[in-house]
Structure formats: C-alpha cells, structure tokens
Amino acid sequence: MRKQSVIVPEELAVTTLMAVVADPAAHHSALLPPRSSAFGVRCARYKRFLSQLDMGSGGGGGARISAWVDSMRASSPTHVKAAAMLSASFAASHDEDYNKWVKQHPSALTVFEDIVAASKGKQIVMFLDYDGTLSPIVDDPDRAFISNAMRETVRDVARHFPTAIVSGRRRDKVFSFVRLRELYYAGSHGMDIKGPTKRTKHTKAKTKAVMFQPATEFLPMIDEVYKALMEKTKLIPGSRVENNTFSLSVHFRCVDEKAWSSLAELVRSVLKRYPKLRLTLGRKVLEIRPSIKWDKGKALEFLLASLGLADSGNVFPVYIGDDRTDEDAFRVLHGRRQGLGILVSGVIRETSACCSLRQPAEVQEFLRWLVEWKRSASLPRRTEARKK
C-alpha cells in the first residue's frame, strides 16, 4: 500500500494560512477566496495613484498639490458631506464591493480558529498600532485615550506574549496613554524604540535594556521644520502640528476641506528647503519623516531580533494596525512568510494584510479571544504538573 501524506486539522490550518500569507492571489482557499477581476483592477489603479503622491522634499508644483488634495479626500472615508451625498444605489454598490473585499481580507474573528491553529508550537509576538487600533480616531489627538477595558486587555496579552506598541506618535506620548511598563514601545514610526521597564517572563532573561534611535542626526532639522510649520499653520484654522521627536504630523481632521490645498502647499513650501525629509499621507494627517530606510516594518524586525527570534522558524508575529504606515510591517510579514497582518478598517483599502477587523472594539475582542485561547491551552499542562 502506497504511503499517503495525511494532514491533521492543525497542519491543514498552518498550510492554508501560510500559503495565503506567501501569495494571497495564488491560493484560492476558504480563508481568502479569489479576487474578482474588477476588484483587482480598482485596487491596482488606486495603488498606482498612491505611488505618485510621495512629495519627497516638496517638488511637483500645482499638479502634485492637486493630487495630494485628492488623496487627502480619499483618506477621509467618514467625511460627513460625502456620506450625505451617497444615493441608495451607490450605497448598495458600496456594500457589494465591501463584501467582496472582506472575502479577500476576512475578519480575524471569523477565521480565529485557523489563526491559532497556524500558530501552534510557535511563539506569538504581538505588534499593535495605537490610534485607530487601540483607541478611536478623534478630532483632538491629545484626547485619543485608550479605555480602561482595552488597557486591561493589552495587559493580559502582555502576560502571555511579548507585546509592542508601534506608533507614529512620540514614544513618551504613547506611553502616557497606555501606561503599561511591561510593553515594548516604538514611537515615531519605529525610529524611537525602548524595551519594557517592568520585567516579565518574556524579558527576565534579557540583561541589556533595549533602546534604539536610528535617526538622531535629524533632530535639529525636525525641530527647525516644526517651528516653521507652527508659525505658518496659524493661517489655517483647525490645523495642528504634532512633534513626534523623530517625525512630525500635520493634522487636517478639523480643517475645512476648502483649505486643504492651501495647507498642502504651505507644507510643501517649507519642505522645499529640506531634501532629506519626506512627506507621506496617513489618516487625515500629513507625516514628515527623515528619508532613511527605516519604518514600522524595520521596527518589527528589530524587535524580533531583540527577542532573539529574528531567524527563528518558530515565531508567529501578529501585527494589527489601521494606517498606511502599517503597510510596511504587513509587507515584512508577507516577505518572511511568517505570522499575520490584520488591517483595522471599515472601508475598502488596498493592503498587504491577510485579515481585517472593522474597529478598535473588534481589536479588543480579538485580543480577548487570544488571551482566553492561551489560558485554556495552558490548563492541561498545569493540571498534569499538579498531578506529578
């Protein structure tokens, strides 16, 4: 009788999930059904459009500013005026398109069993964005508070898995919101990394404190641009400039849409004198960063190395984020063929993430499920140990 390869349920889940991570377009599985051709064309056009938007040091003139304003609108899916203009037929069409998108990026809650089966025998490492992931997006960035329930959930996660917050915010600002000393914090899009100040079972063997800042030479330049933008943006009501230490954020969430073009032109005019800085777009925010090869994906790799897991085949990184800057981390996971990227979005987005969650409330639910699964998986071992 010829031998046959038998795949048990856990192995099947691992095979399915890893194949999807490696090449979602080529694996028509139950986890990620095939994309429709229309959806693929639409996403490809959107991707090409975004590729034209990097302003570098600010060149490009009026045409480039116009493109930026169009993209600023695209980054505002909850724009009230736009929502009011939706006809019933358009809304129905949107629902259909969104349902197709969700089939390509299923809810991490729906495929939870597949995820934990794929992680069996591996060390899960959690990476979490902050704004829009652990806290809701709000008009005032200084009031993006994490709920007490979410904080306790993240604390529970950190008890079971190495956990990092990776944010575009200033590192100490994120810590002031979260206030959990057992976490790793990577601020300024990963350019300011610090390890836990409270020992856990994941860090007790590490004697050397983790601290990494690859862009310190840019600090004087960032400070100059911050002061210039603070002065010039006084002319744009509702605009706000946030100093994230190694990067800057120009928030336009509270700016009248008619003034977006003026704001983009103003930022461009300041950056013309700083060719070593680049401008990218987030969710209703313009991000100014040093032009170095460092991003949230590099931060993820650095943190895995700090944990001694850089070259391990037994690691399962999970990255959850809602912003375009989180795509760098999703692409790293895709390239490593390890772990899972989860995009937080209630609208259609081109993404390298495999799965999705709609809002922070679903993120919290997913994290709770993960903790409960880990606790239940540990129970048999504890019972066995007590018998001995």
Automatic annotation (TrEMBL):
The keyword 4Fe-4S does not apply. It comes from the Eukaryota. Its EC number is 3.1.3.12. Keywords: Hydrolase. Pfam families: Trehalose_PPase (PF02358). It is an enzyme of class 3 (hydrolase). Its cofactor is a divalent metal cation. GO terms for biological process: trehalose biosynthetic process. SUPFAM superfamilies: HAD-like. The keyword Hydrolase applies. GO terms for molecular function: trehalose-phosphatase activity. It catalyses: alpha,alpha-trehalose 6-phosphate + H2O = alpha,alpha-trehalose + phosphate. Pathway: Glycan biosynthesis; trehalose biosynthesis. CDD domains: HAD_TPP. Removes the phosphate from trehalose 6-phosphate to produce free trehalose. Belongs to the trehalose phosphatase family. This is Trehalose 6-phosphate phosphatase. It comes from Ensete ventricosum. The lineage of its organism: Eukaryota, Viridiplantae, Streptophyta, Embryophyta, Tracheophyta.
